[in-house]
């Protein structure tokens, strides 16, 4: 038995909602600009006392309940996030402990918005290699905590949330291929400049806003469309699949125009592309598992369906995974 399948999925989004109309009140922007340039209408925002581990735990509990799986049956916990509770320890350690799984291995993966794609590849590999039987993979972010609310070019884009999947060993194999990549020549294109070992926080760096996410939006846009197309093409080829074999494209939800441009090139009609950006904005590593969870709850995905998960983001980084739903 060296196959892997996803046996449970869940998600969580904080209750508070930030609408385009709310943003109009504090920024020089408009619902019309945000909607036409991004497709976004609302974002869910974590409460001041809610950290990323809290979002993870809620999503994990939803997945465990949906799959009727006991926490004790999970062998390993992975959290993909760029907004951990602390620079260290890993948020996954806190999540596992809070779920009652103290003693189980738990670690974070930090590869920005590509986190879920990388995590799916790593978790599938751990299971197919026979190291673990059940792995919980959570993509979670509290991006509202690192967004500069006065910067209209980024404040409109990002939201908070978490999506969780349980992967388990299976006779049938869902994992068909993975194509991952990274190019770290210009990390500052999409980054949190301060607080790390290169630029520890000082009074001056805080005054300069280095605690906030920054981004070269136009450059990232071009990169995103190119890499979505390239990595999807390679992943399909590696799996021996044609574009026409794909039932669902589940892309990272960064911008409706990025998704539409890539989907058009990949010959994916709208009704094959899962998009929920209107409700959540960009939730980075959480966006793909939240979209998967919602599509499953809506009964859209059926056994045997071929799914392409595709993401891109800071690093720069990118990746696509092809998956046959079990
Ligand atoms: C950020 C993004 C929505 C901006 O859209 P765009 O069409 O590229 O817009 P531009 O950056 O070219 O800006 C066009 C104009 O709108 C203005 N603008 C920027 N944000 C605005 C806002 N929220 N409201 C109104 N105007 C805005 C700019 O200042 C600029 O004005 P100017 O022409 O007078 O200089 C788009 O570039 C994008 O989505 N990039 C990818 C970002 C991303 O996905 N990041 C995460 C990756 S995981």
Structural account:
The protein is of the alpha/beta class and 326 residues long. It has two domains: 3-172, 3-Layer(aba) Sandwich (Peroxisomal Thiolase, Chain A, domain 1); 176-324, Thiolase/Chalcone synthase (Peroxisomal Thiolase, Chain A, domain 1), CATH 3.40.47.10. It is 34% helix and 25% strand. The protein is built from eleven helices and 13 strands. Helix 3 crosses helix 4 (91-99) and helix 8 packs parallel to helix 9 (256-265). The relative contact order is 0.19. The model has no long low-confidence stretch (mean pLDDT 97). The structure holds coenzyme A.
In short:
With 326 residues, the chain is of the alpha/beta class. It is built from 11 helices and 13 strands.
Question: Layout of SSEs?
Answer:
Elements: E1 3-12, E2 16-19, H1 20-26, H2 31-38, E3 42-45, H3 52-67, E4 76-80, H4 91-99, E5 106-109, H5 115-128, E6 134-142, H6 152-155, E7 160-170, E8 175-182, E9 190-192, H7 203-207, E10 213-215, H8 217-238, E11 248-251, H9 256-265, H10 277-280, H11 287-297, E12 306-313, E13 317-324
Parallel strand pairs: 4-5, 4-6, 11-12
Antiparallel strand pairs: 1-7, 2-3, 6-7, 8-13, 9-10, 12-13
Bound molecules: coenzyme A (COA).
Residues 29, 33-34, 37-38, 113, 152-153, 156, 190, 215, 217-218, 220-221, 224, 254-255, 282, 313 line the site of coenzyme A (COA).
């Amino acid at each position: 038995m060296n196959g892997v399948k996803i046996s449970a999925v869940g998600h969580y989004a904080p209750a508070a909602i930030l609408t385009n109309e709310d943003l109009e009140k504090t920024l020089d922007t408009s619902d019309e600009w945000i909607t036409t340039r991004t497709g976004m209408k609302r974002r869910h925002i974590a409460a001041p006392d809610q950290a990323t581990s809290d979002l993870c735990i809620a999503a994990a509990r939803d997945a465990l309940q949906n799959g009727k799986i006991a926490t004790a049956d999970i062998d390993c916990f992975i959290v993909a996030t760029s907004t951990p509770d602390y620079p260290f320890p890993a948020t996954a350690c806190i999540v596992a402990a809070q779920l009652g799984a103290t003693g189980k291995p738990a670690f974070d993966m930090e590869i920005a918005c590509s986190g879920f794609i990388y995590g799916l590849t790593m978790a599938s590999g751990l299971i197919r290699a026979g190291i673990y039987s059940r792995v919980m993979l959570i993509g979670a972010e509290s991006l509202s905590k690192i967004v500069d609310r006065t910067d209209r070019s980024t404040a409109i884009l990002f939201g908070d949330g978490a999506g969780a999947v349980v992967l388990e060993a299976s006779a049938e194999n869902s994992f068909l291929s993975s194509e991952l990549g990274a190019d770290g020549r210009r990390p500052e294109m999409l980054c949190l400049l301060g607080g790390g070992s290169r630029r520890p926080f000082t009074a001056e760096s805080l005054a300069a806003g280095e605690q906030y996410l920054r981004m070269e939006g136009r450059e990232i846009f071009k990169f995103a469309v190119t890499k979505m197309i390239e990595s999807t093409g390679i992943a399909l080829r590696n799996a021996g699949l044609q574009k026409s074999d794909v039932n669902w494209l589940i892309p990272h939800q960064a911008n409706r125009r990025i998704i539409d441009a890539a989907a058009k090139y990949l010959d994916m009609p709208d009704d094959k592309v899962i998009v929920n950006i209107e409700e959540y904005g960009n939730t980075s590593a959480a966006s793909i598992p939240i979209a998967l969870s919602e599509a499953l709850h809506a009964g859209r995905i059926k056994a045997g369906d071929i799914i392409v998960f595709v993401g891109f983001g800071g690093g720069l980084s990118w990746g696509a995974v092809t998956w046959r739903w079990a």
